[in-house]
Amino acid sequence: MRGFARLLLASTLALGLLAAGAPTGLAQEGGNLIVFDSMTPVTGAAVGVPNDRGINGGGLPWAITTGTGAVSHKGAVDVTVTGLIIPARGGNPVAAFKVVVSCLTPNGIVNLATATAPANAAGDSHITGTVDLPHPCQLPIVFVTSPGGSWFAMSNPTSEDEEQDEG
Questions:
Q1: 82 Cβ neighbours under 8 A, 6+ residues apart
Q2: 21, 60, 99, 125: which has the fewest C-beta neighbours closer than 10 Å?
Q3: How far apart (Å, rounded) are the C-alpha atoms in residues 77 and 155?
């Protein structure tokens, strides 16, 4: 009887550990490709030149207060920026932003854009849309761009994203 109790306890603990790990695994499988809670604006040497993903930096240095968002594995995009402005101009001169999701694939870089969303003079915008992601889409980066495609801010990886890239 004592052996049965130990087996039952070990089985219960093993199932508990599996269940604890399930939400993380499920979130990665069917949830989000990328989630971020900060963005870096285009500044310095990145101004006006193409980056390593082939996207031109905006023509002047930008600043951002906050930038958050997510892209699901199915291509649903949801990005919110506040205070995305050109400091030298004292505001945002662009009436609309869009999002470009950039993926590395076995065949090279793929950049996919949403439709534009209104942006106010304070640099606030909520951009949603859907893109047709390639499979696989590795090391995704999310850019907030002008309607013409020049980037003003890019997603920063979270520590969880960096751990996945290393693993």
A1: 64, 65, 66, 67, 122, 123, 124
A2: 21
A3: 13
As a whole number, mean pLDDT of residues 47-53 equals 97
Per-residue pLDDT tens over the stretch 61-83: 999 999 999 999 999 999 999 99
For the chain, the helix, strand and coil percentages under 3-state DSSP, each to the nearest 5: 25, 40, 35
pLDDT computed for residue 158 by the predictor:
75
108-113 and 151-155 as β-strands: parallel, antiparallel, unpaired? unpaired
3 state SS of 160: helix
- What is the rounded CA–CA span in Å between residue 121 and residue 93? 6
